[in-house]
Amino acid sequence: MNYPETKLPKVGTTIFTQMSQMAAEYQAINLSQGFPDFDGPRALLDAVGHYIRQGANQYAPMTGVPALREQIAGKVATLYGRKVCADQEITVTSGATGALFAAISSVVRKGDEVIIFDPAYDSYEPAIELNGGVAVRLQLLPPNFQVDWMQVKAAISSKTRMIIINTPHNPTGAILSAADLDQLAGIVEGTDILLLADEVYEHIVFEGEHQSLLSHDVLYPRSFVVSSFGKTYHTTGWKIGYCVAPASLSVEFRKVHQYLTFSTATPMQLALADIMRDEPQHYLQLPTFYKAKRDLFCSLIKGSSFQFTPAKGTYFQLVDYSAISDLPDTEFCLWLIKEAGVAAIPVSVFCETPPSMRLVRFCFAKGDDTLRSAAERLVHL
């Protein structure tokens, strides 16, 4: 039989899966895929067991457990000064990636253009293309990976449906400033352009405060804002995220969400509601926690041949390896696994046109001993 033509001709197995598999094969230290090698808070883990034993094992409401949505609303009000309705503006999802897909699918139609910024997280473009849209890829400006707002303004057309921003930014660790949000507001004001904000690293900012679209009066009314409990509570395997959006956008978002996963694991949602209520210091202390890991990793590889500027946010560190090798970054990552026993992610996989710098990404969301062992191997290259 003749099978149908692929809907995603540019997509294969993700580089994250490939590098993690190779890391296991070669027994390399895995600093590639973005997940911690330590557990979340003990109180959170214990609470999940408690709710399982109490029988909270059936479907949660499609929009999320009410107690969790109320806690999210409280956090949004406290941190970003935005009063949102837990019933109408907050939707709990099976992972932030699910939320990103639902947001794109709910508003992007055939022929619509969506502006994304390279290096771009790899789930954006496939979601755009599956919905008949066209990704318009703009390059962030190295070496600090800032947005060129004049370029954004020039890229706007009558077909522009959405702009996707990611702050703190994966893979570069760059963050948007309040001035950046004002620039964005000036561009979209008076248009029908919608915004999708990938803010999954909202609590991992090392310089100043996270600038959320939730806090901006011009931007929020046209925004889907996505976050991740996996990133915040070191539980990436749970795949629980959420989207905050104005009621009119949430209605459309939920139309898609209900046919993706419908609902998300009930006992985990109840446990997350408890820890948000009882231990808000966890996410408030997260910048200090991860800054210590960033500083440790950077200090350990300072004597290496890698060149870098410490990341401003996320738990990723970009390094330039041009003093070590002339290999393209994907080939260098393969060499690094085989010869040094450390796994990284090549930055070119996030780009349509890779930057001229030779860059790879390391994840420092690891135990201190893991970081020391990895750095010991890297400094000898």
UniProtKB/TrEMBL annotation:
InterPro entries, per database record: Aminotransferase_I/II_large (IPR004839), Kynurenine-oxoglutarate_AT (IPR051326), PyrdxlP-dep_Trfase (IPR015424), PyrdxlP-dep_Trfase_major (IPR015421), PyrdxlP-dep_Trfase_small (IPR015422)
**Cofactor(s) this protein requires:** pyridoxal 5'-phosphate
Where's the Aminotransferase class I/classII large domain? Answer: 28-378
* Keyword line: Aminotransferase, Pyridoxal phosphate, Transferase
Question: What Gene3D superfamilies does this protein map onto?
Answer: Aspartate Aminotransferase, domain 1, Type I PLP-dependent aspartate aminotransferase-like (Major domain)
Q: Which residues form a coiled coil?
A: none
- GO CC term, one of those recorded: cytoplasm
- Judging by the UniProt lineage, the source's domain of life is Bacteria
For this UniProt entry, the molecular function terms from Gene Ontology, in alphabetical order, are: kynurenine-oxoglutarate transaminase activity; pyridoxal phosphate binding
**PANTHER family, sorted:** FI04487P
Record-stated family: Belongs to the class-I pyridoxal-phosphate-dependent aminotransferase family.
- The protein, known as: Pyridoxal phosphate-dependent aminotransferase
